[in-house]
Amino acid sequence: MNHLLAIENLSISFFSNRKENEIIHNISYHLNTNEILGIVGESGSGKSVSSLAILGLLPKKISKITSGSIIFEDNDLTKITSKAFQQIRGQKIAMIFQEPMSSLNPSTTCGNQVEEILFQHTKLSKKEVKAETLLLFEKVKLPEPERVYSSYPHEISGGQKQRVMIAMAIACKPQILIADEPTTALDVTVQNDIVDLLKELQTKTKMSIIFITHDLSLISQIANRVLVMYKGNIVEQNTVESIFKSPQHNYTKALISARPSLTKRLKRLPTISDVMNDAVNNSVITSEMRAIQHEKIYNQAPLLEVINLEKEYISKSGLFSKAENFKAVNNVSFKLYEGETLGLVGESGCGKSTLGNAILLLDRPTAGTILFKGNDITKLNSTQVKALRKDIQIIFQDPYSSLNPRLTVGQAIMEPMKVHNLFSNATERQEKVIEILERVGLEASHFNRYPHEFSGGQRQRIGIARTVALQPKLIVCDESVSALDISVQAQVLNLLNELKENFGFTYVFISHDLAVVKYMSDQLLVMNKGKIEELDDADVIYNAPKKEYTKKLIDAIPKGL
Hints:
A six-stranded mixed β-sheet has the order 6-7-8-3-9-10, with helices on both faces. A six-stranded mixed β-sheet has the order 16-17-18-13-19-20, with helices on both faces. It has a four-stranded antiparallel β-sheet with strand order 2-1-4-5, with helices on one face. The model has no long low-confidence stretch (mean pLDDT 90). The chain is 39% helix and 24% strand. Helix 7 packs parallel to helix 8 (188-205) and helix 18 packs across helix 19. By secondary structure, it is an alpha/beta fold. The chain has 23 helices and 20 strands.
């Protein structure tokens, strides 16, 4: 059969300290005309590296294709020149990257960036190029194409930036579009829109798409066939239906089961190693067990009470324009009890992180009251706030940017202990830190290592260790698992639940991933445009949402097949 693209026995090596390390091992697959092929696997599985090889974008001095071929239009792309690749990239094979903010040029308008591609690959006049760009913006369903045309990337939302990237990618009507994790950092509703858009464009243009992700449920919404990558190998490839209904490889089974179920609540999410070693614990938290637990939690005075909270910002769009007031948090009230996890969900810009920052007094509220253990913390002075920091802590979304690269992990965790005078001396603190590192699944030897020496999942554990070290009463988890692979996410969620059980922590769990929030939460607070849309037991809201907005969020969750 004549395939549009055929990868045969491809091996790729990287070099470090003059040592050759093979990271893609003899993989073979093909892409048919008018097909969406899903490539799924976790960070380090080789899915992005093998796709960069198709476009000749592997880093020159530190990597090489050691064997195999990539056949496109009867040419072996592993043997063509850089000049020949310029005729292919963008015109015949295009790519959408994971992070539109770093892929778009911040110093030029969105319109200009799409026009540049058209000028390079077509013979259209200046006027025709502008008209074509606006047409592309309409095609990718950008609101107000004229406004986006003259806007800079920082002036539009994440979902809109991703649409500009798609417009650039399809500008020259390529035969193949490679979409590398194009929805990872997006809200579930925006993710849904992007997936629908790509499917629609594919149907209209008959182009073929390689869709790369670590989320198998998402693949089920878009792909015809799937190949599963693990440690540089293709462990399974089949139709979407076969992969979901009867996965053959244990790794595929692990990817499917590591995502929180929407129908049952397991005590512990299965991780990759659990499935690989046949050690899955299928114990379920029943609704009766949950009711007993809730009775215990809610028969006490609240630990935190938020009353009519508001946070207002003043926005000025231009030098001479009139300042406008914008309420990011608008008249929000709720109670939080010791030992409870309150899930906080909503789309980007709904005010959930602003609310979290207000509770932490990182960004003081404009109006309203926050009672912590019965005291209004909005009236505290800076010395009192510093003392309060021990009791209310945060776990950030990106642990790397919140860790000091010059401090070892041990020093980073000991630093807040020292500030709050915990333990008598450095030796005692060090012993405690090692105990905590082991508690969060790291090793004593990690004490003297630096943040850059760890993987994303390990860094998130370090962030958790630093928070736990102060034994706070309340922890705000702000999108703390959204950037993690599905199995690492399962490990971190298990860890947070274990720590909650052992130390009696109380969590405000902020996320745009409703499946994760439902799994973690006792109560669920849905925010929309700064206000509370809905507040109730997480299962009640999921099973019978009262508001259209909540229903839309739930409907957008990738469900698998």
